[in-house]
Amino acid sequence: MSITGVTEQDIANYLADTPGFFERNAEMLGSVRLTSPHGQRAVSLQERQMEMLRDKIKGLELKIIEMIRNGQENVAIADKLHRWTRALMLTADPAELPDVLVRELQHQFLIPQAGVRVWGAAESYGGRAFAQGASDDVKSFASSLTMPYCGVNSGFEAVAWLQDASTVASLALIPLRHGAPAPAFGLLVLGSPDPTRYTMDMGTEFLMRIGETASAGLNRLLPAP
Question: Are 88 and 97 in contact (CB under 8 A)?
């Protein structure tokens, strides 16, 4: 809109630069009518400001609710991680650690299938299931992972360690090692029939913590230095 060369932007700039205008013309505030965003009815400037304030407060309330929900979820995850870690620490016999690790992990986090293999374990554990079935390709692949792999099951050899490999649609592969530069000494596999349970774009920080804790616990199976 332009009136004798004056544009809407000129008017807006004038009002912004002249805060005393409405003080000198206070009666105009009560006569200004605006269209409500919640209908086609006309409302006063004060009503429009109140509507904007209510919308802003509603948006803040939704953000607060989301923050509270995220906080509650994080507390629940931390509690489950604590119970899982505690179960590992209370396992006196090192030979039982892999079974406890997998069983409690499935129980606490509702994981449909899980399995673990450890290579290079002490000779006394050579006959155990967790020390069997890891080929050189699996060992090389695990050592090449700098973080957990999450994605579709594209025929990974390690999926065969799970109870019902044919139903696994997505999986997470978590290397077990002593620090990032060291080669992996094992691999933890989590599988699900849900193709969206483990995806390429999901965050892996939590899975990395799982891997670090599992590595620390299963370290007891390795030969003493």
Answer: yes
